Amino acid sequence: MEKIALMPHTNHLLPGGRLEITIIESRFIRMMKDALSEKRQFALCMLNEGTESDPVKNLPAIVTLSKIIDFNQTDGGLINLSIEGIHNVKLSAVYHEYDGLFSGDAVILPSWSPLPIDSANECLAEKLKRHFAYNQKSKISDDKLKYDDISWVCLRWIEIVPIEVYYKQLLIAQDSPKLTIRFLLKLFQHG
After folding, report:
1. Taking residues 148-168, what's their average pLDDT?
2. Which of 80, 67, 62, 86 is nearest to 167 (CA)?
3. Is 100 left (phi over 0), alpha (psi -120 to 50) or beta?
4. What's this model's pTM, rounded to 2 decimal places?
5. Contact 4, 44 (CB under 8 A)
């Protein structure tokens, strides 16, 4: 895989998810232009809240290759991007470019296979439906909602559950969503 641009962010995005972000810095505007002209892909990198000041020390090994779905400029000159997560990739090297943009060498990781919801974990899909109904932050179109796929449901929960990036990385590094299912069932049992 060619070198990709890296965008550290405290909002988290995984394959199949959508996110709206605002960019103002010239390095990220360059990243956006490169992505739109298909010169270079980019990935969103999970950061914990409060670690934005020193992202190089806090960049995780697994990041999400993303694509721009839509963009617009606000009256104040900010650029809003709607992005979608495509694949998880693992960074093997990170570089710091002339304008402060991070880039890296990466390899695509295997995706979790779609798995049907069963009676033991259907509560996770139901709780996610309720969460999205009350929280309009989700910009996933109805045709992309996959409440019948526990892998998709688990990825959405990993995006939104407020746990440290270290633990999110541990969950997405697994070969299947089994550990995430166990974690979420325990979490909601005690929550």
Report:
1. 96
2. 62
3. left
4. 0.90
5. no
